[in-house]
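>> Question from a student workshop board

For tomorrow's exercise we were told to take the sequence and the ligand below, predict the bound structure, and bring the output to class. My setup keeps failing. Could a helper post the expected result so I can at least see what it should look like? The ligand is pyridoxal-5'-phosphate.
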Amino acid sequence: MDTYFNNLNQQLKNHQRAIPCLLIDLDILDENIEKTQLNLSTNTNLRIVVKSLPSVELIDYILQKTNTSKLMVFHQPFLTDLASRLNNQKDILLGKPMPIKTAEYFYNNLPQQNNGFNPFTQIQWLVDTQKRIEEYIDLAKKLHQKIRLNIEINVGLHRGGFSSLKDLEKGLQLIQKNKEFVEFSGFMGYDPHVVKLPKIIRSEKKAFKLANQFYKNCKDLVKNDFPSLWKENLTFNGAGSPTLNLHKTTKSPVNDVSIGSCFVKPTTFDIPPLKEYKPSAFIATPVLKKFKNTTIPGLEKFKFLFKQQSIFIYGGFWKADYYYPKNIKENKLFGNSTNQSLLNISNKTSLEIDDFVFLRPHQSEFVFLQFGEILPIRKGEIQKPWQLLKNK
Ligand SMILES: Cc1ncc(COP(=O)(O)O)c(C=O)c1O
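>> Workshop helper replied:
Here is what the output should look like for this input. Compare the format with yours to find the bug.
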């Protein structure tokens, strides 16, 4: 660990400027990519979760390495940005239902330039209620374009979606009646609760079985009662980083798994199912000021009590944990600052002004967007920066 971060520190000190930055180690990323591929069963499609990896080159890199053409998107500005870049082979499934206004805005503001992506045939909009299906049918009529609808089903997470076969039947009837305007493209049933529930409440085995049973019943409903909606290439999406390895079994009802965070492994993903994965994303920020001990405003007289060294870093207060050097702590008495944070370090730690400290983000989705770009690292060396997706 020391050698690894000492080298990164040296690299960053030799870099053209010193500001807080987001690093992704491509060699570690490659190892994580290999691991996901070992956890995929042969007849399951991989779908890359864009919100967890919001950079154009990062997504491209993973799509190429995994030979994948499927993405899951959660944010309209990202959808618009991707619509201008993707080719005619890609498939996008929305990971949450978009307000109808937003879907309409997307279609009314399609990018001028594109790379062959068809926003009507290559997007599956997610619908979670009867009302939402009606709204999307109306939108299709307004646009004079057929659009694709994927139905969110509640497999036990209780984050919305159709929860009973009776309601689902009504939703499917509505789609069937309006087949000239909308096409049924499959189901999305997200199941991270399966591994997150305390055992005392429900075992992983039981939660997984219940989730799969409901998923299977939903599929059977389409197959048996709505044969005109059934096709071999429907998308039956499920899973996420925490549950990917569970779906390796042929008993899984899903044929499409969506993952993102396990490639970079922020701290929220330090969970037993992902123990083989390594963190590949780090925040690095320079030390601006250093003092032998700590002086708190108003408590100057008690300076002798605060014996640890103190440093001020460039920025701070990110959704992240200090990681290297070890035993760095934010000073709670001084208060948090996103501008210059006061940190305490042990007197044994040698850290000088202009050295870098390293953090691990709690999550990738929002945190990555705070750094303007990503600095990829290959074999310990900083590479050309990668762009983030447009966020407006
Ligand atoms: C619908 C859905 N699928 C999949 C995922 C998995 O993403 P990740 O692998 O980044 O946890 C998420 C995460 O929020 C999700 O909401």
